[in-house]
Amino acid sequence: MLKVENLHVSVEGKPILKGLTLAVNSGEFHVIMGPNGSGKSTLALTIAGHPKYSVEGGRILFDDEDITALGPHERARRGIMLAFQHPPEVEGVRIIEFLQQVLVETKGVDPVEAYDMIIKKAEELWFKEEDLHRHLNVGFSGGERKRLEILQALLIEPKLLILDEPDSGVDVDSLSVISRKIEELHQRGTAVLLITHYGRILGHLDREKLRAHVMKDGRIVKTGSGELVDRIENEGFGKIFEEVEG
Amino acid sequence: MTETITLSDAKVIIENQIEELARRNREPEWMTRIRYKALEAFEKAPLNDLVISEEELLHFIAKPEIEGIPENIESLDDLPPEMKALLDRLGINEVEQKYIAGLAVQTDTGVIYNEFLKEWEKKGLMVLPTEEAVRKYPDIVKQHFLKLFRADENKLTAYHTAVWNGGIFLYVKEGLKVPFPLHLFFLIQESALAQAPHIIIIAEPNTEFHLIEGCTAPILVKHSLHLDMTEAYIHGGAKAQLTVLQNWPEYVHTRPMTRAKIGKGARFINTTVGLGTGKSNVANPRYWVDENGYVELNGILLGQKDWFIDLGGEMYLQGKGAAGINASKAVIMDESTVITRGVIKAEAPKAKGHISCDALLMSDKATMETYPGLVSRVDDAELSHEAAIGKIREEELFYLMSRGLDEEKATQLIVKGFLEPMLKDIPMEFLVEIRKIIELAVSGGM
Fold first, then answer.
1. Chain B: nearest CA to A92, how far in angstroms?
2. Are residues A81 and A93 in the same domain?
3. Are residues A173 and A104 in the same domain?
């Protein structure tokens, strides 16, 4: 479904990704780990089409279509969704009105029906109706922001969900609901590309079925099963990098 | 502009208009005298307009006579078909039936108002054409007409006073609380016609009401000058709201002149929603606030094309504890210019004032200037101001687009969201219309 081929990306002239290759098939669950600055978020934002990240080489394919030059909304409409690491505050734009418009425009849902859908799903992520009349992420805690990202994923039901550290800055209770909902989405058929530092968000997922990648300096340097995640958590990146380089 | 019009040509034209208005309105002599005095002042008064030159003003004055508008308009059915169609487009007929209880429609020649208002007249709510008020209540009008302005301040005040026509006289009897918003619509029909309605608002003590002056549709006229003058007297303990919705065609120059006296413990909230401000819109409303009185000027300004918008606002906090807020939010597109220059003068102890100005610049060629003025003549006043001029942040736009909205839709959401806090008191029917206009403007500007 997603094929990233020899991708080179720079931000404001500075090269970040240096020949990254990755393939995610339908329904798969991939985990990307790596130290800070290795290019994980750059990969996520580039796939989502952030205009600041310029592709200098290589390409991105989605369902066999080259999407490298498409705008973010066009990628979204093809089934890619990024749950942001730092969802920005958008002053004045009410959550409910935004989500309604998204569902109406991208899924052709009737506005009234969309409203009910949103309220119902929101409950599962502990948002009350009145919370949804707040402005997007304005004054939200870390946990609220990340739960709101997951709510959007549940409503949009993307083919590919990219999660950029959904566990960072989140309280324990939020983490458990986020983790359960990611699993739920995955079970319903969404492919997941998860960027994280910790294995605990993986919850009860079968480690055997996970694909784990380790990034360093703009490339994927090691790929393995879910056990790799636990190894990194226990041993850190140092040992793995030694193996790779040694 | 084929021929040159001199000041004395203009005087002759104005004189003829005065005679015509006096005859048409069966005007008492004292009012006609006020007009003639203004005409005298017109010659010597300065023209300190930032946009309109004397030559242009004289050209506006020398417009041809109006044709096709009936002399007497009693109901909406008497309107010419194209004007009725226009009201339909704005949804006014529908709005009137469904929701708005108090409606008055201003045309070039008269005011139409509905049955409902007649019912409220018995309780002490008077809404009538200013011309009619001049005949019916001469004593009240004499006490309030041109008391907050002087005809000789400048050429525009003089010209307005000489040829004022239309407008409403709103009187709310002591203690009366009007539970529905009152609506007044202005429509410009004729090219180069100076529409100069004169509005008098008298809120007796402890009254409450919300007057909405709203808007006009984009009619194709070549040149036009709108010179409305509003004098508001908000007496002790009254709570009055005046909302002005402006959606002028882009060739109209508008010079709204508003002044208000706010009594002890009274509140006056004056909101101006400038969606289509016309070719140029220059306003400098003035407010005098007595003890513990409160005034708020909210400006919503949408600059498009090459429009020039200049919103001032002078607040004189004259009584102890008087307070004023001048807040504006501007969305500035294309090659338009928006200037805000609020001034708050604290002249009494414990006066409080705040000026805020937010602007969203949508184009590299658009210009925003803001000049807040705070003046304190006492040592315990609290005066402050804040201003923020910025662009839509890339992160916000990307976030909204990453959920599948295109750039235009995402921008519209952000712009509407930016303006929304200022639109809190506007009835839903208008909000729908306003949002539509904003969306169209944003799409057009992209």
1. 4
2. no
3. no
**Is the pLDDT score of A133 beyond 50?**
yes
SS3 A85: coil
Choose between A31 and A230: higher pLDDT: A31
Question: Does residue B295 lie within any of the structural domains?
Answer: no
Q: Identify the closest residue of chain B to A152 by CA–CA distance.
A: B403
- Pick the last residue of a domain from B283, B304, B338: B283
pLDDT at A145: 96
Q: Once rounded to an integer, what is the mean pLDDT over residues A184-195?
A: 96
The lowest-confidence range among A5-14, A42-51, A192-201, B56-65 is B56-65
User: Touching check for B431 and chain A: CB below 8 Å?
Assistant: no
Domain identity same for A58 and A116: no
* Residues of B with Cβ-Cβ distance to A71 under 8 angstroms: 401, 406-407
The answer on B187 and B55 residing in a single domain is: yes
Contact B359, B370 (CB under 8 A): yes
**Considering the domain boundaries, does residue B2 fall inside one?**
no
B270 and B405 share one domain: no
User: Quick check: B29 contacting A, CB < 8 Å?
Assistant: no
Q: Which domain holds residue A29?
A: 2-87+161-245
| Exposure string for B158-185, b = 16+ CB within 10 A, e = fewer | bbbbbbbbbbbbbbbeeebebeebbbbb
Percent of chain A with pLDDT over 70: 100
| Look-up of token digits 């044709």 | B67
The per-residue pLDDT for B79 is: 60
> Residue A108 and residue A118: Cα distance in Å, rounded?
14
Kindly list the averaged pLDDT for each block of 10 residues, start to end, along chain B of length 446.
78 91 92 97 94 88 53 55 60 42 43 64 88 94 97 96 90 93 61 71 97 59 75 98 82 90 98 85 96 97 93 97 97 95 97 96 94 95 95 96 96 92 80 79 69
Asked whether residue A6 is assigned to any structural domain, the reply reads yes
- How big is chain B by its Cα radius of gyration, in Å? 21
The span from the CA of B148 to the CA of A33, in Å, is 72
For residues A157-176, average pLDDT: 93
The average pLDDT across A102-117 equals 96
Q: What angle do CA A125, A127, A130 make, to 5 degrees?
A: 165
Q: How far apart are CA B186 and CA B197, in angstroms?
A: 9
Q: Which residue, among B326, B263, B270, B310, has the nearest Cα to B289 in the 3D structure?
A: B263
Verdict on whether the full-model pTM lies above 0.90: no
As a whole number of angstroms, the distance between CA A104 and CA A129 comes to: 19
- Rounded to the nearest 10°, the torsion over CA B17, B18, B23, B29 is 180
Beta-strand (E) ranges in chain A? 2-11, 14-24, 29-33, 53-62, 65-66, 80-83, 90-94, 135-136, 160-164, 191-195, 210-216, 219-224
Measuring CA to CA, how many Å separate B242 from each of A25, B123, B141, B210, B288?
61, 21, 20, 6, 16
- CATH number for position A10: 3.40.50.300
Give residues 387 to 406 of B whose Cβ lies within 8 Å of A. 393-396, 398-406
Kindly calculate the radius of gyration of chain A based on its CA atoms and give it in whole angstroms: 18
For residue B162, the enclosing domain spans 7-283
Residue B425, pLDDT score: 79
Q: What residue in A sits closest to B417 (Cα-Cα)?
A: A92
The ipTM is: 0.97
Give the model's pLDDT for residue A244.
85
B416 neighbourhood in chain A, CB within 8 Å: 92-93
The one-letter amino acid at B398: F
